[in-house]
Automatic annotation (TrEMBL):
The chain crosses the membrane at residues 359-380. This is LSD1 subclass zinc finger protein. Keywords: Membrane, Transmembrane, Transmembrane helix. It comes from Chitinophaga skermanii.
Length: 381
């Protein structure tokens, strides 16, 4: 089935047969729900575009890059998008919504609904598995389990965890795989031991003793190593701090689906900002430790030195994926704290305030325990 026909069929399936309203995807299910009349529609499988295993869907890297710079090529979808003037994030807007807030920095957004843009269609989507109510529960438990949280915050946790503040959004990622061939030059170090004599004083007398001394014999080494890398995941925007983004991992890749717009219905989607070429450079950096480890294994010996190595990336493929996150924020003592929840696993990563007095008394308690042990030790001595 041609791409245009597939897209048209999906769009028509997003309309409620009972009342004509738009259907929205229900996290953790294969169903779409009408928010007006409650009608539930199953996301049917069996189409040629949703039976392909998601992990096999990718595109030759060079072809994908060429298509991105050629509007006549590639698979594009029309969508309303808006860029935040505060943080720079670019996201899609829901139909018939003229204003909203940025899910990343909460700044107000206004979109011109008469102006839509052609954006690249992802290859795959990881559907929301955690609902907003489940996300709020995970957030509440996370907040209660933090050390040194102010008592006032704990008492008001119910009001701080507002389900209405949770925003569901799909984040863009590049997923790379590639064969690599690496030629290298280096040195192999093999240990050997010699016996040496030395003089020491024992009970006031000089004694001659022997001991083993380790040395390293170095020899030149060179060779070629071959490695295949799969699922090198790179965030395709800078809307979330890199450290926070990595802590959201791992993702349930076994739940990945071939892209189907119905899984996105009712949620925002961030548009990628990191170019695929830039993403591939980051992927290369993440492959590098594995390549160096393979070189050291190939050199062998007890120690290794890598003097030079050159990597050739053969037949690299790219997969454009969108992954689900619930984003929220809360204000405590006039400061805003951001929270991110992996909507496929429930992992919560966020910022939180600390109680000065709890930390102060904890340190006093530790010092008191150490002082007590010191006194007991002196008394026993």
């Amino acid at each position: 089935m041609p791409f245009e026909e597939k897209n048209s069929e999906i769009v028509s399936s997003l309309v409620c047969d009972s009342c004509g309203a738009k259907l929205e995807f229900q996290p953790g299910t294969q169903k779409l729900r009408c928010g007006y009349c409650g009608t539930m529609n199953e996301i049917e499988s069996g189409h040629d575009y949703d039976t392909t295993p998601a992990h096999t869907i990718s595109t030759d890297f060079a072809e994908f890059v060429e298509a991105e710079y050629n509007t006549a090529q590639g698979q594009k979808v029309s969508s309303y998008v808006v860029s935040c003037k505060q943080c720079g994030a670019t996201t899609t807007m829901l139909p018939n919504v003229a204003s909203d807030s940025c899910p990343f920095c909460t700044s107000p957004l206004v979109v011109n609904q008469s102006d839509s843009k052609q954006i690249t269609q992802p290859h795959v989507v990881l559907p929301f598995r955690i609902s907003d109510r489940q996300a709020a529960l995970f957030l509440f438990k996370w907040m209660k389990s933090r050390w040194f949280v102010p008592n006032k915050m704990l008492k008001n946790a119910d009001s701080l965890v507002d389900i209405r503040q949770l925003k569901g959004i799909y984040l863009p990622y590049w997923n790379f795989d590639s064969n690599t061939t690496t030629t290298y030059t280096g040195e192999r170090g093999d240990y050997y031991y010699t016996t040496e004599t030395y003089t020491t004083t024992v009970n006031g007398k000089q004694e001659i003793r022997t001991r083993q001394v380790r040395h390293t014999r170095w020899s030149r080494a060179s060779g070629t190593v071959y490695l295949y890398f799969d699922k090198i995941l790179v965030k395709a925007s800078a809307s979330i701090d890199a450290k926070v983004e990595r802590k959201l991992e791992p993702w349930r890749f076994e739940d990945m689906k071939a892209f189907d717009e119905r899984y996105l219905s009712g949620f925002r989607t961030e548009v990628y900002k990191t170019k695929p070429e830039e993403g591939f450079e980051t992927a290369k950096q993440r492959m590098d430790p594995g390549i160096q480890s393979a070189i050291r294994d190939d050199i062998g010996g007890d120690e290794q030195r890598i003097n030079d190595y050159r990597v050739t990336y053969e037949d690299p493929n790219i997969q454009y994926a969108v992954l689900p996150v619930w984003i929220s924020s809360y204000k405590y003592n006039n400061k805003v704290y951001n929270i991110y929840i992996n909507a496929s696993t429930g992992e919560v990563i966020g910022q939180r305030p600390y109680s000065f007095w709890k930390i102060f008394f904890f340190i006093l308690m530790i010092l008191g325990i150490l002082l007590l042990f010191a006194v007991i030790g002196q008394a026993a001595g």
